[in-house]
Amino acid sequence: MEERELEVVPGLAGIPAAESAISFIDGEKGILEYRGIPVEVLTEKSNFLEVSYLLIFGKLPTQEEVNKFKTDINFHSRLKLKIVRMMEHLPENGHPMEYLQSVSSAMGMYYPAKNVLDTDVRYWSIVRLIAKLPTIVASSNRLRHGDAPLQPNNDLSFAANFYYMLFERVPDPLTEKILDVMLILHADHTMNASTFSARVVGSTLADPYTIVASAIGTLSGPLHGGANEEVIHMLEEIGSKEDVRPYIEKKLEKKEKIMGVGHRIYKTKDPRAIILQTFAHQLFESNASKKGKVLEIAEEVEKVVHEKLGHKKIYPNVDFYSGIVFQGLGIPTDLFTPIFAMGRVTGWLAHWLEQLKTNKIYRPDQKYIGLHNQPYIPIDDRN
Asked: Which of 30, 75, 337, 340 has the highest Cβ tally under 10 A?
């Protein structure tokens, strides 16, 4: 039997899996747009909930529309008591991404959403997921450290409320702005691994909580969302600006990956990294502490990497500076990726809705390289 010839493309690189009007990247020019609007403009002039509305519903909301969206999200930001009790019984040494995935999945039992073709089911699922993910992240962090979760403060903005639930204090304006920008920058990024996962699961007409749980699981891998944690570990391992060059040279000699640099699409510096680097300087401009030192080491890494790998068009990506900014805000390292998920959930949901418009279940082919017509060997004769 002869297997028909199929060309295998590892990682499906460059293979379009869907048509989409949600976000656009020009990797050569370093452009990222949401629904045609440059991300730099949105981070300057908009806010996360307005951008979420833009991504999910396809247009910037009117004042009336955004007010209703905010009100609905505020109303649904609390967690059911049984969900909190479930979280209390999860292992304290579990990673926050494991908490987030488990609770997101469990939410589907409390808010059944099987009829994904019903517009009301879709809307309220979207509202609940955007509203509750920050509460889950903040609550799981407090529970893991022996503290009681805090109820949301709906007098605060979306970003400020998350910070309050995490630290029991209201953030200063710069911290609030940076957190909001973080969420915007992570909201969507075309057909990345977790978004593809969301679309694949969505194509089966699974409920949105299952879809988001699968996307969170995909995001948890160190080659996707987990890279920002690895960047901080790398910078701490380097230790000083003077040790950067020998560290990078040793990595390159061993052909080991340098975390936070390089991107499958961008052949120039990630525009999100440029925005975050600016905010990192604002955070550390009057800070001569060890945290400020991390930025100094990072920029030296960028310099040496550009010198060694610039000819290969390898530059910092969003993960390179996001971890540094998170650390500057006092965010625990293991919350970096869950906060990434808090922003990216809007992109996942936008792609889910887009998938449903012309849905066809994903069923890729494979190239079989195994044997044929093998004999069955009785168990007593097997080696």
From this structure: 337
Q: What are the boundaries of each domain within the chain?
A: 227-328
232 close to 327: Cβ distance less than 8 angstroms: yes
Residue at token pair 């808010």:
111
Burial 124-156 (b: 16+ CB within 10 A, else e): bbbbbbbbbbbbbbbbbbbbbeeeebbebeeeb
Extended beta strands in 111-255, E state: none
Q: Please name every residue paired with 37 in a beta bridge, in sequence order, or none if there are none.
A: 34
Distance CA 202, CA 19 (A): 15
Number of other residues whose CB lies within 10 A of the CB of residue 296: 14
**Other C-beta atoms lying within 10 Å of the C-beta of residue 264:** 11
Catalytic site includes residue 263: yes
Task: Tell me phi and psi for residue 37, to 5 degrees.
Answer: -100, 125
CATH class of 227-328: mainly alpha
Q: Of residues 180, 188, 270, 319, which has the active-site annotation?
A: 319
Distance CA 322, CA 312 (A): 23
Per-residue pLDDT of the chain (383 residues; tens, 9 = 90+): 455 577 888 888 888 899 999 999 998 899 999 999 999 999 999 999 999 999 999 999 999 999 999 999 999 999 999 999 999 999 989 999 999 999 999 999 999 999 999 999 999 999 999 999 999 999 999 999 999 999 999 999 999 999 999 999 999 999 999 999 999 999 999 999 999 999 999 999 999 999 999 999 999 988 787 778 888 989 999 999 999 999 999 999 998 988 888 877 888 899 999 999 999 999 887 555 556 788 999 999 999 999 998 888 888 888 889 989 998 999 999 999 999 999 999 999 999 999 999 999 999 999 999 999 999 999 999 98
Cα 73 from chain centroid (whole Å): 20
Phi, psi of 261 (to 5 degrees): -125, 145
Other beta carbons within 10 angstroms of residue 325's beta carbon come to: 25
Whether 319 is a known active-site residue: answer: yes
Q: Which of 76, 186, 189, 263 is catalytic?
A: 263
How do strand 23-26 and strand 31-34 relate by DSSP bridges?
Answer: antiparallel
